[in-house]
Amino acid sequence: MSLGRNIADFRKRKGFTQEELGVRLGVTNQAVSKWENETSLPDILLLPSIADALGVTLNALYGIEEKAPEKVRADDFPEAAREALKNYFVEQAGARMPGGPELGERVLGCVSDKAGAVFISKDFSLIDNTFRVSGSETVFERPGLLSMLEIMSDRTIMKVFAYLYRISSERFAQSRETERPDALRAFTVPEVAEGCGLYKSPAEEALDTLSSLHLTEAARTRGGETEYCFSTDRAQFVHAIFHILEILFSDSRVYALRRDSSNISDYLFEKLW
Fold first, then answer.
1. Among candidates 226, 198, 231, which has minimal Cα distance to 212?
2. Rounded distance, CA 17 to CA 22, Å?
3. Average pLDDT over the chain, rounded to an integer
4. Strand, helix or coil at 269?
5. Among 60-74, 143-157, 178-192, 253-267, which stretch is predicted with the lowest mean pLDDT?
6. In this predicted structure, what is the pLDDT of residue 260?
7. Domain segments of the chain: what residues?
């Protein structure tokens, strides 16, 4: 059974008229009628609300047989989450998805005219529930965030950060083989200076600056040498910022899945750049 017919079937089971369902969802009864007649499809961001109003799961809404959730290992979770997100694009766009269901080097996005944005590429994905929400623009006015961007744009800071990021990743991979996942996480100033091709003073200053951003943590050792522990958990967010910038300045083919909540336009992919 198709999505439109499923919506009609579950609506009737609930005893709702098209108008009553529309009121619950903030749309017109004409919009509900178009969904059920499959002359248009509901906004992808509206699907959870439709399922909730009808008292069913998203899988049931799509006519997908419910299965016991598969356990996903932590190492596989990011890719599994990305695949699930990609599948939503495929289900919503159908034949209109440019080049078929494989992402390749393309970038796909969905922006609601009410709130929320979804962004997915081959290596990076993002879900923002605040985009276009009233007051969300204040994030650009916070002086603390601006100072962090200024600090992270310093070439010495970037060089030291990249070194800590790379070496900590390599060390973690090695430590897993010896079943010592917490081993070899600390860095000394001379080591960082040599690894980055810097003098000791700028290397130490960079490490202290990263500590002010909670990206490293300094601790005094017995020998009087200061060691710095690199926060790989926090590093992922800095990595995400630069990954977004990389995509913005790349020549990737970017497409947007657009539909407004007035249900005037149908789903389509529009090439942005």
1. 231
2. 8
3. 82
4. strand
5. 253-267
6. 58
7. 3-61, 77-140+252-271, 154-245
Query: Can you tell me the distance from the alpha carbon of 59 to that of 50, in angstroms, rounded to the nearest whole number?
Result: 12
pLDDT tens per residue, range 54-86: 888 888 888 877 666 678 888 889 888 888 888
- Both structure tokens of 232: 């790989």
Residue 269 has pLDDT above 60, yes or no: no
Determine the 3-state secondary structure of 75 from DSSP: coil
Q: Decide: helix, strand or coil at residue 126.
A: strand
> Which fold does the domain 154-245 belong to in CATH?
Arc Repressor Mutant, subunit A (1.10.10)
Helix, coil or strand: residue 116: coil
pLDDT by residue (tens digit) across 92-141?
665 566 666 677 777 788 777 778 888 888 888 999 989 888 889 998 88
Place of tokens 């947007």: 256
Rounded Cα distance, 213 and 215, in Å: 5
d(C-alpha 33, C-alpha 229), whole Å: 59
Q: Give the separation between CA 209 and CA 216, rounded to whole angstroms.
A: 9
DSSP string covering 168-226: HHHHHHHHHHTT-TTSS-EEEHHHHHHHHT--HHHHHHHHHHHHHTTSEEEEE-TTS-E
Which has more pLDDT, 123 or 178?
123
Hey, which residues does 230 pair with through a beta bridge?
Answer: 216
Tell me which fold the domain 3-61 belongs to: 434 Repressor (Amino-terminal Domain) (1.10.260)
Contact yes or no for 5/52 (Cβ under 8 A):
no
